[in-house]
Write a structure and sequence with these properties.
Elements (H helix, E strand, L loop, with lengths): L7 H14 L8 E2 L4 E2 L10 E4 L10 E2 L3 E7 L5 H14 L4 E6 L4 E9 L2 E9 L4 E5 L5 E5 L14
Parallel strand pairs: 2-4, 5-6
Antiparallel strand pairs: 1-3, 3-5, 6-7, 7-8, 9-10
Length: about 160
């Protein structure tokens, strides 16, 4: 296994979403960078995944059928993959909610209503605009605090 180092923005954004997920309950099934099986496709280890409470591992992994929400945090090297490739893939597999969290654009794109080629609905929400309630297919609500998402530090020349 080869681990690619992530930026501080990437890591702190995932941590912020994990903190928000605690409202789902201490024992809610929320994973980060854990492989999920997508048959006939490359498996994914999303930055954050919220699973059904009754999800059970098949072997060592959860199935895409257990996923209620996936979130990917954009890094400078992953923008095309997160915005395009993952949107098509997660929609094709019927993932009910796909969030693209972009610390550099300081926005979150909420994809819902999956189709065979992506998602019907995509709504963009700016950082700093309050709490974003996201209904999950099991009746719970994941609330992402857009005011608390970390912003990248300005580069030395940008100050």
């Amino acid at each position: 296994m080869i681990m690619t180092p992530r930026s501080e923005e990437h890591s702190s954004t995932i941590r912020s979403m994990q903190i928000d997920s605690l409202a789902l309950g201490r024992h809610a099934k929320v994973t980060s960078d854990v492989y999920i099986d997508f048959p006939a496709d490359e498996n994914s280890a999303p930055d954050l995944a919220i699973l059904r409470e009754d999800a059970r591992k098949e072997g060592k992994r959860y199935s895409f059928e257990d996923v209620l929400l996936i979130s990917e945090v954009v890094s400078t090297s992953s923008a095309r993959k997160d915005y395009d490739d993952c949107t098509a893939k997660y929609g094709r597999y019927g993932i009910p909610v796909y969030l693209v969290v972009d610390p550099y654009a300081q926005e979150v794109v909420l994809h819902t209503q999956p189709t065979g080629t992506g998602y019907i609905a995509a709504h963009t929400h700016r950082y700093g605009t309050g709490k974003l309630p996201i209904p999950l297919a099991d009746g719970r609500t994941f609330t992402l605090d857009l005011d608390e998402l970390p912003r990248p530090e300005p580069e030395e020349g940008d100050r």
